[in-house]
């Protein structure tokens, strides 16, 4: 596996990978990450390998998507360990830019995606999705992948990125080639996240209440029970289990992310963000499928 630390090296290496196929037509898959890799990321990588000729992974802890008082400084950085994991999975190229290479002096552009970015995490973390959309647009332009792979764990992020790709007529990757990969979970149901490592043993045990209570709420909604009291009961159960605060617990249309007060026949999603100690956990699950 090669590692690129500058845009020049990245572009040279990507061009080399493309030329490995006759006519320079090798298909490149991009897996954007912020590092601190776990099985969820490796699942993205394996899917990219299955669908493309070569995989480029990026590791960049993007400062513009962290708000004031969030965990930018504490966010785990372990480039050597992550590189070894990527190499073992057959990643061809790692793009690991410095902050100054991504945001050189004078950088003054930001992408705001309306609609899908506005509620849920967008409301709780102002500016977060501007940072995500901007860095992902840059990664798409830098690597120009045929396909890109993101976890469904960040369901709203995936919707924002697809909206951006559609609105900006991106061709590499085309919006249809932005793949959402199902969430990988621990044995007790907790969604894998780089932030789970912040949890104390007690918090980690309590965190498993989140997927359990979400499944319980989904069963009730699918059973025809009213949405508002079901979500209120979900919030109470989480607070009772040791969560400090619930940012949101919402039943939403899976495409527009508009809140629903009942199942309307189309794909729906239950999305929750909740804080336990100083850690903010998010999760989402399909409803009515
Ligand atoms: O999901 C993430 O890890 C990040 O938000 C992403 C997509 C790599 C952009 O920084």
Strand line-up across the major sheet: 1-4-3-2-5-6
Indicate how many domains the architecture comprises. Answer: 2
**Helix segment tally:** 10
Roughly how many Å is the radius of gyration?
19 Å
| Residues in β-strands, percent | 15-25%
Distance linking N and C termini? 40 Å
Q: Could you say which small molecules are bound to this protein? A: pantoate
Look at the helices and sheets and give the structural class. alpha/beta
Shape: globular
How many strands, what sense, and barrel or not for the largest sheet? 6 strands, parallel
CATH A-level architecture of the largest domain: 3-Layer(aba) Sandwich
CATH level 1 class label of the largest domain: Alpha Beta
CATH H level of the largest domain: which superfamily? HUPs
Helix-strand topology string: EHEHEHEHHHEHEHHHEEE
The portion of residues assigned to helices is: 25-40%
Number of strands: 9
Give the low-confidence spans.
none
CATH fold group of the largest domain: Rossmann fold
What would the average pLDDT be, to the nearest integer?
Answer: 97
Describe the overall structure.
Helices cover 38% and strands 19% of the residues. With 289 residues, the chain is of the alpha/beta class. The chain folds into two domains: 2-181, HUPs (Rossmann fold); 194-283, 2-Layer Sandwich (Pantoate--beta-alanine Ligase, Chain: A,domain 2), CATH 3.30.1300.10. The chain has a six-stranded parallel sheet, sandwiched between helices. Strand 8 (268-276) and strand 9 (279-287) form a beta hairpin. Helix 6 crosses helix 7 (155-167) and helix 9 (209-222) packs antiparallel against helix 10 (227-241). The longest helix has 16 residues, at 128-143. Bound molecules: pantoate.
